[in-house]
Design a protein that fits this description.
- The complex is a heterodimer of chains A (about 180) and B (about 500).
- Chain A has 3 helices and 10 strands.
- By secondary structure, chain A is of the alpha+beta class.
- Chain A has 2 domains: about 45 residues; about 110 residues, Rieske Iron-sulfur Protein.
- A 6-stranded antiparallel beta sheet of chain A has the order 1-10-9-4-3-2, with no helix packed on it. A 4-stranded antiparallel beta sheet of chain A has the order 5-6-7-8, with no helix packed on it.
- In chain A, strand 9 and strand 10 form a beta hairpin.
- Chain A starts with 10 loop residues before the first helix and ends in a 10-residue tail after the last strand.
- Chain B has about 500 residues and is mainly α.
- Chain B has 2 domains: about 350 residues, Cytochrome Bc1 Complex, Chain C (Up-down Bundle); about 100 residues, Cytochrome Bc1 Complex, Chain D, domain 2 (Orthogonal Bundle), CATH 1.10.760.10.
- Chain B contains 20 helices and 2 strands.
- In chain B, helix 3 crosses helix 12, helix 5 packs antiparallel against helix 6 and helix 7 packs antiparallel against helix 8.
- The chains are: A alpha+beta (about 180), B mainly alpha (about 500).
- At the A-B interface, strand 3 of A face helix 7, helix 8, helix 9 and helix 13 of B.
Chain lengths: ~180, ~500
Amino acid sequence: MNPTLPPVLGSQEAEPHAPAPTRRNLLFKAGVALNAIGALLLGLPLIGFVFSSFFHKHLGNSWISLGTLDKFPVNETRLTIFRNPFTRPWDGETADIPCYVRQLPDQKFKVFAVNCAHLGCPVRWFEESGLFMCPCHGGVYYSDGSRASGPPPRGLFEYHYKVENGELFVKGGEMPTLANPV
Amino acid sequence: MNTLRSIALWIDDRLHLTKLFESTAGHHVPASAGSWFYVFGSATLLCFVIQIITGTYLAFVYVPSTNEAWTSLQYLNQEQYLGWLLRAIHYWGSNFMVAIMTLHMIQVFLFGAYKYPREMTWISGIFLMLLTLGMAFTGQVLRWDSDAYWGLGIGASIMGRLPLVGGNMVHLMLGGPIIAGETLSRFFTLHVFMIPGFIIALVSIHLRLVLSKGINEYPTPGKPISKATYDAEYAEIIHKEGVAFVPHAIGKDLIFSALIIVAILTCAIVFGPHGPMGPPTPARVDTAPRPDFYFLFLFAALALLPDWMETFVLFVVPAVLVCIFIALPFISPDGEKSYRKRPVAVLTVILVMLIISVLCYLGDVAPWSPKMNAWTGDPIPVAFVKGRTPVELRGAAVLQAKQCRNCHSLGGLGGERGPALDDVASRLTKDQLVRQVIQGGGNMPAYGKNLNPAEVESLVAFMATLHTGTNPPARDSAVPAVPPAVATMR
């Protein structure tokens, strides 16, 4: 049989070691190559969609008002919430982010994230002893946010703040972690 | 009758049912494999099937939206007819699945079933274990309550410790900058579509390998196997004493599986569904997040490890463990199979289970966590204030009001973060007490800024009374001791 002719049905049995290249062979290789390109074209947007955090930042932190200054008495620590600047309509209360505000003398502030620097659990403020205590692994912080005891590797995460027109603003929008300490 | 018979034969001929049965359920296994030790694999699969069925039905009602999920779970518990029972079966089914899977793995390890030629059966099992744990974690996230919310916070904080890519990984895990809308959708997709899909695919491979490489014969102590001869030996076993899995070797599996169904149902009816706990409102900080029991050991380890070791243990140790698991059949591919001749294997299992159990127990009691409401909820027992002077009583009030009890217990009540104060005066002198209170140290915060001198004075006066008759107060070694006889005379 002439190898340059297209093989006919049943020719494989007759000729198990068919010499290459045949048209079938070529079609197979071209088919694989085309599908590989197709998979790549399909795969790139899929990967981009899932791993969008690596390619595309939604929104940086932005300034959020915490309300007027009289909400925060001097030398006291208050728990307050702000609506996260980046939300979706179905976020519900999960986008109401809590933080602790302490007004120091001279209109200076300390605004702490509630997330423990150890593993992110919510620290609780105790006015009487002037301590923040974490319910998870027992991290404790002083009223200025510095680490007092326990496993946290650093003090509480602190938001940047500014005072404008008698209102306190903080720069927030992201869950504070060791990688993004606000 | 003949018509029915011919219909049955036609169906069998077209669908190859008899051939399918002979090559799957009816395949021949060593008679010795029909043992009570060999029932855990099928029981794990049964749990998975129960999970799929109950999970699918729960998805009829559950709403994977951050705003609605918690309410839809309450609806399942309270309003939906038998919703509570389905939630309870799904919860207890997951617990049983993790527990029986562990037993299956221990049995396979102790019976040397991972050895030649079943390496891939073992390795596919390792990935099935990881996926099952993935189901457990994503499942507790879908219980969208305060524990789920802060559990994600812990997960994100762990991710945030990754060098270089930490920030991006947090975004990838949470589906955005905070725990909110896309986070739940993401975990719902993982729990309901992706991981179950992978599990079904891997279970298919796992079972296919059981068919093609055979089930491990009950090992005989003192009869090591070798790669060169095993295949022939196994063929001989199947030839000589092989029995059809169905119906001759499946009996014990069936009985055990039925018992498991009854056990899951009993637990579900008696103990009911788990949660949801408080709503996933981040502003409600008066919560003490705890993971489900399968992750309590990790929760405990993170409290007990030295700071510098944590990130290493979180990322490197799991990877090393998975590598060891995968490498196991290549490290020890042949030789002795029976646990009776493998003391190191038995000791390893005992040691690992002891470590995990002790850590889980510690994670459950969490003595390192301050007891947040001890200062308001646990009064000082009467015996500790009886007969005290006014200054000492004032000190007792300071001890209570300054939240000392959150970490220190009196009469067994209060936190266990710090030492119990029942007989603190027999350990520390008054001067040492003052120093400890003001400067802190040894994992105790310094209270110098939060106590005025009068408060310190009274607090120490009270603590100096905290000793028993048999344990006299500590004294400064520079001051000569007063002989006991003189002390009683005074």
